[in-house]
# Entry
Amino acid sequence: MIFTNLLALASTASYIFSVNAEAGIKSGTIEGFNKCLGVDQYHDLYLFECDGHDDQIWHFEGYWSVGYNIKNEYYPDMCLTANEEWNFDVRDVQTQTVQFPQLMPCTDAANQKWAIGGNRADAKNSLYLYDNEIDWHDITSSDVRKPYSNNVDLVLLDDEDGHLIVDGTLKKRGCGDGESNAFSVLVEPFDDKPWHFIEYTMEFVEGSSSCWSILGNTHYGEFLGDNLGLHKFDIDEGDIVIFNELSFGDWQGETIRCDNELDNFLNGKHGHGYKGSIRVRQRRDFNEVRGYIGSGYSCTKIGTIVRYKDIRVGYLNNDDHENSECLMPFNGGNGDRVLVQECGDNSWKWDIDTSV
# Structure
């Protein structure tokens, strides 16, 4: 089979599908060269004339934080897979290693997880194998801005290892018509390069509060905006409880609670001393410009102290996917063959239309 390298060619796509958009399932076509990506009877991928048939409709299942499984409408139980590797010469200049993408039974393997990278300026999207490696950056007091407090004495300092500690001492009881307590800090290191994940420990040093909203939930108290730039905490979508060392109650990842039940770890029925700690990882919501950590409280014992510590932010390597493996079209014998190979500087951009 003879292959012609098409790396330098570009499509004229409209930006419809965003890697930053959360999705349970999105469906649509994948287009390039005014043709549609489809699958033949052998489960191999080619570019065909667009006809709207099921073999040209693709489903994106998952989230940017954990990678997408890409399935075909005609073969709903199979996943797009970067399959067997081949070596071949490109224009007698160099040897390249490529993989032939196929639909194969879904196994949740790494070669079935895909990332979707787009650029709103040029309105194009790349499809490439998801890289779950995260670069972590420990947060210091110099990495935070806009500390905000409402009825909270807020103290920011670095511990002996140079890591940020945020202590909030709550000053209002709240409840009924009373004022609630809330505080937040903007976390923006690395010259405003947006992070993808944030990890932190919340420690409930002393006091109690029957009503609370945590992990990005802003129900109690007043904040600078309606949200903190974090997705709703959801383990199924990629958020993680790293540890739960609470001393009381039965916390199961809830972000809001207000009652006098013993299951409520922060309720005054457990006394007003130390309540333990939790550590979580959360996804940033890229629909928001900034990312904060913070929480709100009501029906609170005045003097209650809530602490954030051991804060770090993570950057997915998928943003810079030059060395990743991209899904690309190559001109071949039986229709336009599609391969997977190193993206390079001019990685192929697809028109991914999920409006159908």
Summary: The two ends are 34 Å apart (CA to CA). Residues 25-131+321-353 form a domain with the Trefoil (Acidic Fibroblast Growth Factor, subunit A) fold (CATH 2.80.10.50). The CA atoms of residues 79 and 115 lie 14 Å apart.
